[in-house]
Every structure is written in C-alpha cells, then in structure tokens.
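Dear H.,

Thanks for agreeing to be a second pair of eyes. The structure we're designing against is below in token form, covering all 221 positions.
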C-alpha cells in the first residue's frame, strides 16, 4: 500500500518549513497526571517534572506547518472519530498527547524536534510514528487508569503500528524509531524497546488483516 498524497505533501511541508507563523499564543493547562504521554529524544519518554502548563500556538489546516494535515490523515486512515486539536511549542524537544481545559484532546509538538528525529532515524516515518503513538493514546482513551504506565504505552504502541500500516509504512520502518530511542530495560512508565517493538508489530499485523484488538481501544466506533 502506498501512502497518500496528503501525507507526502504534509511531510515535505513539515520537514522543510520549521519556522511556522500561527495565531497568538495560548496557555494550555493539563488536566492532572492521568492523561499525559510525552516522548523525548534523550531517553524515549518525557522527563520534565510537574509540568501542567504550556504556552503554545494552535495549528490550523493550511498553515505552513503541515501538522494538522498529518494528524487529520492519520485519523482518517484509523477509521475512528476522535476529535483532536493540534498545538505547537518551541524548545520542548518533545511531542505529547494530553487532555486540557474542559476535556479537549490535544497533540502538542515541537516541530524542530520531530524534524531532528527524522534526521537521526533516517526515515520520514520517524516523526509520523511518534505522532501516531500519541494519537494512539487518544484512541485507547488513556484507558489503563494512568497515562504513562507500561500497559497504556503498549496500547499506544499497538495503535502506532496499526496506523502506520494503514498509511503505507512497512513493518521495519514502523519500529525503527522506537528501536533507536527506546530503552533496554523497563521503567516505571515505559516497557523496554523490545516489548514495544512487539506491540507495534502486533498492530501492524492486525491492520494488514483488516482487524483490530478491541481490548486496546476505548474509543473505537
């Protein structure tokens, strides 16, 4: 399966237009610690302590980031109707999923960070796999009682593999990012990269068969 023209165009925009002009900054307040997952390039997961507010700019379809188009296309391929808002921040070296305000589901990304990820893993699917993982948390509904637990991370990894297969990534490309940045050992919040690779491959395999695991999904429709 070939990825859509939308994804191709959006990735090109996303990689080569790192300085994006948006609307004014807004303050986002995260709703507690049970609906948060981030990824940092240093060790595979978010490490900033006690973070509950971010100053961000909302991204829109047609701006020169391309991120809304990428998120929209990924969700369209998923077949699930989970409304997602997209915001960008600078200097965070991260991409994360969370819930803010009165229940708004969001993806917040540092565009330059995602650009760096693609350079390091040497595939355009690197950044997309991170975005797909974060969207996976929204599909799964942060369902395992807390956002960053090993079970909830494996749920999101499963959906990352599922979504990347739908977009046209091969199995190796779908796991390359986690194998580059994941940890050798389990942590309190994340499984080791080998378990995560297995979950991604499980999602990829299910998508190739036209199936999905309902146990990994709260918002499937």
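And this is the sequence the design step returned. I haven't edited it by hand at all.
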């Amino acid at each position: 399966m070939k990825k859509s023209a939308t994804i191709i165009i959006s990735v090109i925009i996303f990689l080569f237009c790192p300085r994006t002009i948006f609307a004014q900054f807004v303050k986002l307040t995260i709703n507690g610690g049970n609906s948060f997952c981030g990824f940092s390039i240093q060790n595979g997961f978010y490490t900033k302590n006690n973070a509950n507010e971010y100053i961000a700019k909302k991204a829109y379809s047609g701006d020169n980031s391309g991120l809304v188009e990428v998120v929209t296309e990924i969700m369209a391929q998923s077949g699930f109707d989970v409304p997602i808002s997209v915001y960008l921040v600078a200097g965070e070296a991260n991409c994360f999923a969370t819930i803010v305000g009165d229940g708004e589901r969001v993806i917040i990304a540092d565009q330059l960070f995602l650009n760096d990820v693609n350079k390091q893993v040497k595939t355009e699917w690197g950044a997309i796999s991170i975005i797909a993982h974060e969207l996976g948390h929204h599909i799964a509904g942060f369902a395992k009682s807390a956002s960053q637990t090993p079970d909830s991370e494996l749920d999101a990894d499963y959906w990352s593999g599922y979504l990347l297969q739908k977009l046209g990534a091969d199995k190796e490309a779908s796991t390359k990012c986690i194998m580059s940045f994941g940890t050798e050992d389990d942590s309190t919040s994340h499984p080791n990269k080998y378990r995560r690779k297995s979950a991604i491959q499980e999602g990829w395999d299910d998508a190739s068969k036209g199936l999905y695991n309902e146990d990994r999904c709260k918002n499937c429709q």
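Two observations from my side: Helices lie at 5-16, 67-78, 111-121, 125-140, 150-167, 171-181, 193-208. The beta strands are 25-29, 36-40, 53-58, 85-89, 94-100, 104-110.

Warmly,
E.
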